[in-house]
Design brief:
By secondary structure, this protein is mainly α. It has 24 helices and two strands. The radius of gyration is 22 Å and the shape is globular.
Length: 500
């Protein structure tokens, strides 16, 4: 069996074993080990044809290889977070001896239940994404991603019975994209079979269908409802898993399509439409992020803002669009994982992560609070964070085209930063009831006693990585630049040149 097929067999084949231990920390450890092994195996492979199935070549492209490695690495860390974060229900009962039903109903953080579906179903989804990456045919890829979306409903629900809003929004909007991709693929196949009768109108129709499909997958405004709902209603690690893997898979599919079907770039104003969609999404989400009153809601709009910036990068092009997009996706994954770990730590002690409910949390959980701030500022592209380099490239390239684009993107990033600074300010406030309690006073003197030790280590490592990538961005850029062949970048440059 070709070595690349182990990327499918390893995660899917290990699901029965992980399922047996899904209620224990061992299930998280097994899932994380399998994901880490898959990430290592991805780096050892060579891009090219893997095998032929029914006359169709199954191959691995350079961009898909990097994105799959990113997915497996991010998933390995996310699998560990629920196991390292104490259950809110168990902690509350241990500390007080009882638990109000109202707290149990409103709590959407860490209850110790998410691992029951997160670990095994997450591995299946990763295996399906590997199959979708190997096919390089939009019709087959869209069908497999639709199957993954259906399975993701089990992760989003995570054993919750109080609300199905996030699951319904996610499944509805992701499923709406599939018919558009099937129609677009039919037109692409017909176009390639009738090369002598090429029509500009047929390409325009194909581009329209593709645009609607990718807009739904990437949650372009006004199709963004599933992102904010998942971030608000889902467990932190599960929500972050969804917000990382599906956008990364979408960008991988989109860029491979542009490389393999270059005729689509001849559609007039295609790059401008992509740029406008990205800027509109980033600006709207950045504006709304500044108005949020909780870290979960803020997570959704911040992730949406970063998606808009990455889409704008693709629309602008530039000297190395693929490289900058890869850097942006890697930084996005790092920041979202940091936010998930920090939110999980706080949600293990509080029934809600609303700004009004977590006053004084900075005194008891300082590192988790700083992790929230650093993760948000990283996604906002603030200086000295890992997100500064790709955002600076985006702003510089946007300013060369139109200063208005740069101003809107800068204002959107400022809105995200304001949202997290507002939350950080509320976390610094001292609740009078806490200040008057002798027990809480001793807690304030020893704040680390309130934070999960092992999760605290993960948060610290993620923060250090954010700082290192921010001060020395070459540590991230140079390995990706060496790994990505130069001709791959040049081929995508034709897209930016032809479509303007």
């Amino acid at each position: 069996m070709p070595h690349a097929l182990w990327l499918i067999a390893l995660p899917i084949g290990s699901v029965p074993l992980v399922y047996l231990f899904r209620r224990q920390a061992l299930g998280a450890i097994l899932a994380a080990i399998i994901a880490a092994l898959s990430a290592w195996l991805t780096g050892q492979l060579s891009a090219g044809t893997i095998v032929k199935v029914f006359g169709r070549a199954i191959h691995l492209s350079q961009f898909s290889q990097i994105t799959l490695g990113l997915l497996f690495t991010a998933s390995a860390i996310l699998f560990l977070i629920p196991a390292l974060a104490p259950s809110y229900v168990e902690e509350r009962r241990r500390r007080t001896g009882s638990l109000k039903q109202s707290h149990l109903n409103q709590h959407g953080g860490v209850q110790g239940r998410e691992g029951r579906t997160f670990y095994p179903v997450g591995l299946i989804i990763l295996g399906i994404f590997v199959i979708a990456s190997f096919t390089h045919h939009l019709r087959i890829t869209a069908i497999f991603i639709e199957v993954a979306a259906i399975l993701t409903v089990f992760i989003i629900q995570g054993g919750r019975l109080t609300s199905t809003r996030a699951s319904l929004r996610f499944l509805s909007l992701m499923s709406l994209a599939t018919p558009f991709f099937l129609l677009a693929t039919w037109q692409i196949d017909f176009y390639l079979l009738n090369k002598g009768a090429r029509s500009a109108d047929s390409l325009t129709q194909t581009a329209f269908l593709l645009g609607i499909g990718f807009a739904l997958w990437l949650a372009v405004v006004p199709f963004h409802g599933w992102v904010t709902a998942v971030a608000t209603d889902c467990y932190p690690s599960s929500a972050t898993f969804v917000l990382i893997v599906f956008p990364v898979m979408t960008f991988s599919t989109l860029i491979n399509l542009l490389i393999e079907f270059p005729d689509i770039v001849s559609v007039p104003n295609l790059a401008n439409v992509i740029l406008i969609a990205g800027v509109a999404t980033a600006f709207a989400s950045g504006l709304l992020a500044s108005l949020q009153r909780g870290f979960s809601e803020l997570l959704g709009y911040t992730a949406l803002y970063d998606l808009g910036c990455t889409l704008a990068l693709l629309g602008i092009g530039g000297p190395a669009p693929v490289l900058v997009i890869l850097v942006s996706l890697a930084v996005r994954a790092l920041a979202l994982i940091l936010l998930a770990a920090s939110t999980s730590a706080i949600r293990s002690r509080y029934a809600s992560d609303g700004f009004a409910q977590i006053k004084g949390v900075a005194m008891k959980m300082p590192l988790a609070t700083i992790g929230l701030l650093m993760g948000g500022l990283t996604l906002a592209g603030m200086p000295l964070t890992a997100g500064f380099a790709p955002h600076w490239v985006l702003l510089a390239a946007a300013a060369k085209l139109n200063i208005l684009w740069a101003v809107l993107l800068a204002l959107a990033g400022l809105g995200v930063a304001i949202g997290y600074l507002r939350g950080f300010y509320q976390a610094l406030l001292i609740d009078e009831t806490i200040a008057q309690s002798k027990i809480q006073l001793s807690t304030r003197l020893f704040p680390w006693l309130q934070e999960p030790i092992w999760l605290l280590l993960v948060i610290s490592l993620l923060m250090v990585t954010c700082l290192i990538w921010g001060v020395f961005p070459a540590l991230l850029i140079e390995p990706l630049q060496k790994y990505l062949p130069q001709d791959f970048v040049i081929n995508l440059l034709a897209y930016a040149n032809l479509s303007r």
